[in-house]
Amino acid sequence: MENSTQVKLINLFGLQETFNNKSVYFILSLITYLLIVTVNLTLIITIIQEKGLHEPMYIFLCSLCVNELNGTAGFYPKFLLDLQSDVQVISYGGCLTQTYVIYTSVMCEISTLTVMSYDRYVAICRPLLYHTIVISLTVRKLLLLSWCYPLFIGLIVVSLTVRLPFCGSRIDKIFCDIPSILKHAYCKDLYKVS
Predict the structure, then answer these.
(1) How far apart are CA 124 and CA 119, in angstroms?
(2) What's the rounded Cα separation, in Å, for the pair 89 and 111?
(3) Which residues on neighbouring strands pair with residue 10, listed in sequence order?
C-alpha cells in the first residue's frame, strides 16, 4: 500500500464542447462576473452607509451578498482563465480549495436564507415580540451560526477527502467537486495483492 503515486495536476474536461465559441463564452462570463461583483458591492456599501438599513433583515441580506462574492470568487476567475487557455488544468490543492469555497458558499447561502426566514417568521407571526426576540445579540449569534457551521462542515468534508488516495487526473466538469474527486479515490494498483 506504500507505492501510490501522487497526482499533481488534474485535467478539467468540462469545456471540450465550447472550443468554437470560447471568446463568446468568455465575454458573457466576464460580464456576468463583473455584474455579480458590482451589484453585490453596491448592496453591501449601501447597507453599511445607510443607517436606516441597519435592521436585522438588511444585515442578513448584507451577509448574503458577502457570501455571494465569496462563492463567485471561488468559481469565476478559474473559469475565465480556462476559457482563455487551450488546456484546462488545476492543481490538486487548487481543486480542493475550489471545492471548499464552492461548497461552503452554497451551505452558507442556505443557512443565511434559513436565518432570514426565521427573522421573517418572527416579524410576521409575533410582531409585538419581534424587538424583544430579535435583538442585536440574537442577530450576531445567527450570523455567526450561519457562517461558522458551513465553514466547519466544509473543513471536515475536505479534510476527509484529502485522506483518500487520488489516482486519476481527469474530471469531466468545469470545476472541482467532491463526487468527481471521490470517483478517483479507488486506485487499482494501490489495493493489488502481490
Answers:
(1) 9
(2) 32
(3) 90
pLDDT tens digits, one per residue of 130-167: 999 999 999 999 999 999 999 999 999 999 988 888 77
Give the whole-angstrom CA distance, residue 132 versus residue 138: 10
- Residue that is written with C-alpha cell 463564452 in the block: 25
- Which SS3 state, helix, strand or coil, does residue 185 take? coil
Are 175 and 102 within 8 A, CB to CB? Answer: yes
What is the CB neighbour count within 10 angstroms for residue 21? Answer: 11
Distance of alpha carbon 158 from alpha carbon 1, whole angstroms: 22
Q: Which of 89, 90, 48 lies closest to 66, judged by CA? A: 48
The predicted pLDDT at position 99 comes to: 92
The model's pTM:
0.84
Alpha helices of 87-191 — where are they, by DSSP H?
Answer: 92-125, 130-133, 136-162, 178-183
For residue 45, which of 22, 62, 24 has the smallest C-alpha distance? 62
Provide the β-strand partners of residue 55. none
